[in-house]
Amino acid sequence: MERKQKQTPSFDLERMARLMGGNPALVHEVLHTFLIHHRTTGRQIRLWCEQGELAAAERLAGRMEAIAGTLAAEPMAHAAHELQRMLRQKRRESIEGALRTFCRALDTLLHDIQAELAGARA
Predict the structure, then answer these.
(1) CA within 20 to 30 Å of 28's CA: 12, 39, 42, 92, which one?
(2) Closest to 44 in 3D by CA, of 69, 61, 67
(3) What is the mean predicted confidence (pLDDT) over 54-64?
């Protein structure tokens, strides 16, 4: 029996699957790879901000926005875009709030992906 794909609060699995040609193995691989490679992304951006490496933090936020598009993760894409904008403008007073929002969106996305992958194995 085929599992019904669903939308989580943090990403739209059906849309992601369509973007990937309806290939469930590819969707699983992309989600798993994201989980492995982006667990510490929020900490990395925070570290770069603390070290004054705003350009590096901005580039990573931009990459995260693009990746979020691939995952059909609108909340993550929006949070990454806003963080990138604050970093580009070097608005230090706004960077911390944008970074907190980004980290919350990333944590939620990671949690939802982990739950989806666990459900796929069940």
Answers:
(1) 42
(2) 61
(3) 97
- Joined tokens for residue 39: 């667990």
21: left (phi over 0), alpha (psi -120 to 50) or beta: left
Q: Is a pLDDT exceeding 70 seen at residue 102?
A: yes
Assessment of whether the complete model's pTM goes beyond 0.85: yes
Under 8 Å between Cβ of 101 and 82: yes
- Closest by CA position to 109, among listed 83, 81, 71: 71
Query: Both tokens of residue 119?
Result: 């459900």
Whether 108 shows a pLDDT value over 90: the answer reads yes
C-alpha radius of gyration, the chain, whole number: 15
